[in-house]
Specification:
Blueprint (H helix, E strand, L loop, with lengths): L2 H14 L7 E5 L4 H12 L3 E6 L4 H7 L3 E4 L5 H8 L4 E6 L3 H7 L3 E9 L14 E4 L6 H12 L7 E6 L3 H9 L6 E5 L1
Helix pairs in contact: 1-2
């Protein structure tokens, strides 16, 4: 459960997002596999984390380390974010896209950064100072070694919500496609 989701979160936040200690990151789709690892990695790096998912997953996001949780179903996401972080966010880490991403854009600082694992940014109306990156994880032994070190030290854990045997791979994908998965779905031989 760690390699692909971990590389995606790590490279999104640090390689492409250039997240620094003391900055604030907004994680969309924060209760999923990539988002939950993103929360932990950002907290470990000294960032303030605002996590967005359903109200049912607020406790889980707090357990992962989120400083603030936002329920995407309770009105414009940016307004909720600005209520807890009036100065705005430095980095928006998008693991869900769609309307939630569009609603979140006004929460960015004028020099904010967006890293999305899904959106190509073409239909977004971005202010002039906003930097957008669409990313796909790349193989990296040093990054995997770093993730392993964090996991071995107890500073990063992979929350597994469900496991499926290889014969039920279709059911596993149906669960993932529901977009209501908390943590990782893992297929086992």
């Amino acid at each position: 459960g760690l390699p692909l989701a971990g590389l995606t979160a790590y490279q999104s936040l640090f390689t492409h997002g250039h997240l620094q200690a003391g900055e604030t990151v907004l994680v969309l789709g924060a209760s999923g596999g990539v988002g939950s690892l993103g929360i932990q990695l950002a907290k470990d790096a000294g960032a303030t984390v605002v996590a967005v998912a359903s109200a049912a997953n607020a406790g889980f996001m707090k357990e992962m380390g989120a400083d603030f949780t936002i329920n995407y179903a309770q009105g414009p996401v940016a307004e909720q974010v600005r209520a807890v972080v009036p100065a705005g966010i430095d980095l928006l880490f998008d693991c869900i896209s769609g309307d939630t991403l569009a609603q979140s854009l006004p929460a960015l600082k004028p020099s904010g950064r967006i890293v999305s694992t899904l959106s190509d940014g073409k239909n977004l109306f971005l202010a002039p100072g906003i930097r957008f990156t669409h990313m796909m994880a790349q193989p990296s032994v040093p990054d995997l070694d770093h993730l392993r070190e964090l996991a071995d030290a107890g500073r990063l854990r992979v929350p597994v919500s469900a496991t499926f045997p290889l014969a039920d791979v279709k059911k596993a994908f149906e669960q993932i496609e529901s977009k209501h998965t908390t943590g990782k779905v893992v297929i086992v031989p």
